[in-house]
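To: structure subgroup
Subject: Chain for Friday's discussion

All,

I'm putting the inputs and outputs inline so they're searchable in the archive.
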Amino acid sequence: MKQKNISLENKTILMTGAGGFIGANLALKLFATVNPIQIIGIDNMNDYYDVGIKEYRLKKIDNAVARHPESSWTFVRGSIADKSTVDEIFQDYKPSIVVNLAAQAGVRYSITNPDAYIESNLIGFYNILEACRHSYDGGATGVEHLVYASSSSVYGSNKKVPYSTDDKVDNPVSLYAATKKSNELMAHAYSKLYNIPSTGLRFFTVYGPAGRPDMAYFGFTNKLRAGQNIQIFNYGNCKRDFTYIDDIVEGVIRVMQAAPEKITGEDGLPIAPYAVYNIGNNQPDNLLDFVDILQQELIRAGVLDANYDFDAHKELVPMQPGDVSVTYADTSALEADFGFKPSTDLRTGLRRFAQWYKDFYM
C-alpha cells in the first residue's frame, strides 16, 4: 500500500476540464469531503455535446461551494491550448496539484475531426506540462503532483485480457487513442527531465447521471425515448468495463494524495517519478445485457412506457471503425497501491442515471 504524501486540505488544485463529467463530479466530491480547499477550474465549454449539461454541472459546483465558505472555487472559461491562459493561471494561483481532465473525447469523432484532438490533447497537454516545469523556477515548491486522464483506448486491439498497464500499447486504432498514449509518453519525459511527479489514469467507459451525451448509454436512452431504433455494434458481442462515476472519482482522489516518490538513481539523475494505473470495474459486461438492464431501469423510472417493446427497437450491426470488441481492466495495481476497487454494480448505476434523466429532461 502506498503511503499518502500529500494532504489535500489547504491546497490549491488546478482542475482542467472542470465542466466535464469527471471533472465536475471530482470538484463536488472534494468540496464535500475536504475543507478548506481552493479549486481553480478551467473549461472551454465547447459544443461537442449539449453545453446545457456542462452549465448544469457548474451550477451544482457553485451550490456546493456556497455551503463551504472556508473553501473557494474559481472558474476560468478558456482553453488549455491557449498557452498564455495556462501560464497566467499558474502565475496567479500557483497550484500545488494539477488534475488534467481536459481533452477532446470520443473515438468516432476523432476520425472526422482530428484537429480538435491535436489542439486539446497534444498542444493543451504540452502547455500544462510546461507550466508544471516552470512552477519550480526560482526554487519554488511548485507542483507536487500532476494527475492526468488517459484512456482504455490505448490498448487498441490487444487480444490479451484483462488489460494490464504492463501490456505493450504501441498499436492504437484511433487518433484519440494515439493522443492519449502520447500524453503518457510526454508525461514520462517531463517526469524524467524535470522531476515532476505524474500519474496517468486509464479510465474504462465511465457512466452515470449527467454523463456525456455522446456515450452509447446516453444515446440509446435518447433514441429509445424518441421511439427510434438503436444499433448495437458487433452484433451485441462487445464487452465493456462500465465504471460508475462515483467509483472513478474515489479512485482519482486516492491517487491525488500519493504522488510517485522522487528518487535519485545510481547515475545521480532522477528516476522518473511516474506511474500509470487502470481504473475500471474489472468485471466487463456484454453490451446487449447492459442495454437490456438500461431499458428496464428506464421503464422503472418512467422514462419509457411500461409496455415498451425493446426488441422491436434494437438492431444488431457490425463493428464500427476505431472501436474494439472488449475493454477489461486489470486493476490489481490500483488495489495493491491504494486498497481500492470500484464496487458499484451495473443495475445500481443505471438506476441512478435513469432517475436523473427523468428529472433533467421530463
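Points worth raising on Friday:
The radius of gyration is 20 Å.
The chain is about 40% helix and 15% strand.

D.
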